[in-house]
Write a structure and sequence with these properties.
Elements lengths: L1 H18 L1 E9 L9 E5 L5 E6 L5 E6 L6 E6 L9 E2 L3 E7 L4 E3 L2 E3 L6 E4 L2 E5 H7 L5 H6 L4 E3 L5 E3 L5 E5 L9 H7 L5 E7 L11 E7 L6 E13 L1 E13 L3 E26 L2 E26 L3
Keywords: Signal
Organism: Leyella stercorea DSM 18206
Protein name: TonB-dependent receptor plug domain-containing protein
């Protein structure tokens, strides 16, 4: 009886394990050289995210999930390379080729360096210190936008490659102090410990879908830091924006205050031309509208956090 039970349990275990499906492949550049630590996300053709991982030192990757329907889509990205999204009809993908992305300044070609990434459970983690050392960054927003797999649009939007929408969190929580991206732009880069990428949010985050989680460093002592930022834009009119932020941290308390001043002016013009025939008479209609807008904005935000642990 015991032998029968043991055999049954072993067969059941083998059956459960056999249900897991695995996708394998290798990430290479145009010269067939391995692309180390590229991020690979797998989703269905209707954009449902299933799992994600990173390539090893040989560029190879393994994606495992309980169910991976064929065909499926991979979203492959690495800093310094163009993001690709091949559709695959086999679990053995083979080589995925990334084209090098370069920024040309005159006769100088600048190629980006890759920050260190690793997979920790259900998330891909980027070490902020590696990004700060290899890129010119001034704020937490800059750190996040240079993480492989994160797309930055118009320097005002962050999203995970291949996703319809992405929630940006700070320390695993929704930021309630207005725009989280504006907060990250006033937060010094040195405050960031790591950036986590999740194609499916964990339950403790209380959000659904894809997540970019910016994790800040622990407060190990008393520290007072601040940052000033100014911008100027001329597009028919002058537009100015100045902001300042102040941070005071202790092992228990974290105090944050931000002030932003914006003096914006803009001009727009629209012209409408039409021809209307009434009977034998043709009427020409010409409407020319010019609009001048001016706004003066002051924003003040203060936040205090106490660690009870």
């Amino acid at each position: 009886m015991k032998k029968t039970t043991l055999i049954t349990l072993l067969l059941l275990l083998l059956f459960v394990q056999s249900k897991a499906q695995t996708v394998t492949g290798r990430i290479v550049d145009s010269e067939k050289q391995s692309v180390v630590m590229a991020t690979i996300a797998l989703q269905t053709l209707d954009s449902i995210n299933i799992c994600a991982t990173t390539a090893d030192v040989d560029g190879r990757f393994v994606l495992t999930a309980d169910s991976i329907p064929l065909p499926f889509r991979l979203i492959v990205s690495s800093i310094g390379y163009e993001t690709v999204m091949p559709e695959c009809a086999s679990y053995a993908v083979g080589d995925v080729v990334l084209a090098t992305k370069t920024n040309v300044l005159g006769d100088v070609v600048i190629k980006s360096k890759r920050p260190m990434l690793n997979v920790q459970g259900d998330r891909i983690v980027a070490d902020a210190s590696s990004i700060i050392k290899s890129r010119i960054v001034t704020c937490a927003f800059d750190v996040a936008k240079y993480v492989p797999g994160i797309l930055c649009k118009n320097d005002n939007e962050l999203s995970l490659a291949g996703t319809m929408s992405t929630t940006v969190l700070v320390n695993g929580k929704v930021w309630n102090g207005g725009s989280v991206l504006e907060y990250l732009k006033t937060l010094p880069a040195e405050k960031v410990a790591k950036v986590e990428l999740l194609y499916n949010a964990s339950p403790d985050m209380h959000v659904t879908g894809a997540v970019i989680n910016v994790v800040l460093k622990d407060n190990k002592g008393r520290e007072l830091t601040g940052q000033l930022k100014s911008s100027y834009l001329n597009n028919h009119h002058n537009t100015f924006q100045e902001s300042g932020s102040l941070f005071y941290t202790t092992p228990k308390w974290s105090l944050y205050s931000m002030y932003t001043f914006a003096d914006a002016k803009s001009i727009s013009r629209s012209q409408y031309l039409s021809h209307h025939t009434v009977g034998d008479q043709v009427y020409d209609i010409d409407v020319d509208t010019r609009t001048h807008n001016s706004s003066l904005t002051h924003t003040v935000y203060t936040n205090a956090t106490y660690n009870v642990s």
